[in-house]
Amino acid sequence: MFTFLLICTLTSLLPLGHASLPLVINTWPFKNATAAAWSALQSGGSVLDAVERGCARCEMEQCDGSVGYGGSPDESGETTLDALIMNGDTMEVGAVADLRRIKNAIGVARAVMEHTEHTLLVGESASVFAENMGFIAEDLTTNKSVNIFSEWLKGSCQPNYRKNVSPDPSKSCGPYRPKATWKQSKRARHANIHAHDTIGMIALDRDGHAAAGTSTNGLTHKVPGRVGDSPIVGAGAYVDSLAGGAAATGDGDVMMRFLPSYLAVELMRAGVDPSAACKSAISRIKRHYSEFFGAIICANTTGHYGAACNKVPGLTKFHFMVANSETNTPVLKSVDCF
After folding, report:
1. Which of 263, 314, 261, 257 lies closest to 288 in space, CA to CA?
2. Range of 264's domain?
3. 180: in domain
């Protein structure tokens, strides 16, 4: 009787709902992405189908300007995409980074997983692979991204992500050269927390299959060639059908150094509640970068889920979406940052 009461008490303390499968959970209030993934599961699609369709919806809708085409122009004004998809049954992964000309980055990532022996393809070679696989080459710039780039040039290319360098004295920006005495102010990540909102998604079905994925256009004004955490296994996302899944969003240059998604999944494998696992992964980063911007979502194999975020100016509460058999529709959830 004591054991039964203890289990009931612990369950009642779970802050973000009871266990329920199937489940779709994703970062940010990207409701249409959640709905697309949930619809895929309800219509008999696999968890991989759900993740791909959910992330693809965000790519098509240019969620928050930070996913898909027409957002986050780099220092040359080009929009490039990163994406990852992972199969929690087989531990197969497909990912692309610095992808050009192709709008459906998550689709290309799945093609890498299903049609090559590789895990990650990057840059122009990834784009050529995508075109060879039948993906349509299109211009990823829009009037909005061109305007963002133009305004940045007018502002002497500030803010940017360079440090300990200075531009040619005859120019307001670039080419840059090392200059030990030159110091940059705070990094651009402090200027706009919405400059890099990755969609990270986890899907689980009733039979215990799990998948996870990410998609983003990276940081606005990033150095060309920059790759963040989103397409890196264990950083942007990680999933194991025997333990659960996790996905991260935020300052990828910092977060990828700690593999927070892998850490959270391993904690859940050891029996840690998803909320606590997410919080531990964030805490690990905070010990070194107390002002980093970032959040993580977690879900275990029973359908329990949670989230955590680092509290910084402009981010005191993190919003994410959930759909499961209890709600049968996307529901907005939130967690207080710490």
Report:
1. 257
2. 15-141+190-336
3. no
In a domain, 6, yes or no: no
Average pLDDT over every residue of 104-118 = 98
Read off the pTM. 0.91
> How crowded is residue 76: how many other Cβ atoms within 10 Å of its Cβ?
10
For residues 51 and 143, what is the distance between their CA atoms, to the nearest angstrom? Answer: 29
Clarify whether 198 is annotated catalytic: yes
Hey, what are 212's tokens? 């996870």
pLDDT tens digit sequence for 281-301: 999 999 999 999 999 999 999
pLDDT at position 180: 56
307 found inside a domain? yes
Number of folded domains in the chain?
1
Catalytic residue among 198, 216, 220, 301: 198
DSSP string, 219-270: -TTPPTT---STTSBTTTEEEETTTEEEEEEE-HHHHGGG-HHHHHHHHHHT
Residue ranges at the known binding site for substrate: 226-229, 249-252
Q: What is the CA radius of gyration of the chain?
A: 20
Q: Find, among 228, 238, 173, 237, the residue nearest to 195 by Cα.
A: 228
Q: By C-alpha distance, which of 203, 194, 188 is closest to 29? A: 194
Q: Which CATH number covers residue 233?
A: 3.60.20.30
User: What is the DSSP secondary structure assignment for residue 20, as one 8-state letter?
Assistant: -
Q: Render pLDDT for 133-179 as a digit per residue (tens, 0 to 9).
A: 999 999 999 999 999 999 999 999 999 999 999 888 778 888 898 87
Q: Is 37 helix (H, G, I), strand (E, B) or coil?
A: helix
Residue 164 lies in a domain: no
What are 201-254's pLDDT values in tens digits?
999 999 999 999 999 999 999 999 999 999 999 999 999 999 999 999 999 999
CA dist., res. 64 & res. 32, Å (int):
12
For residue 72, pLDDT over 50 is answered with: yes
Residue 272: C-alpha distances to residues 180, 268, 318, 338 (Å): 46, 5, 21, 19
